[in-house]
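User: My instructor asked us to take a sequence, write out its structure as tokens, and then describe one feature of it. I'm not sure where to start. Here is the sequence I was given:
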Amino acid sequence: MLEGIFGNINAERVLLHIYHYGEIHASAIAKDYGVSKTPLLNQLERFKAANVLKSKEVGRSRLYSFNDKSPFTQHIKSLIEILYNTIPMDEKQSLFGERRRPRRKGKPIK
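Assistant: Let's start with the prediction itself. The structure tokens for your sequence are:
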């Protein structure tokens, strides 16, 4: 839906995943959409160069998240929130259903 605004579908995919998960790496986005990691990584780096995203290394992975110090971030988040809220629940479950964080140590499995 926002492909026309951001220029390509990968920009929309990247921003949706970061909006939902808070922080994520390129491989996880590629896996969810069944696409190559390279174009997603290029898009993440474009947003980072534009100061919309920031990244940090965790082990051998690079995690990306919104750069809250950027004056554009809140406006972009507002656009993504509108898109996110229009996605049907079954599609959200298929896109964002996989657990990305480890279970808390000692937490019972239900």
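For the description part of your assignment, you could build on this observation: Residues 73-86 form the longest helix (14 residues). Try explaining in your own words what that tells you about the chain.
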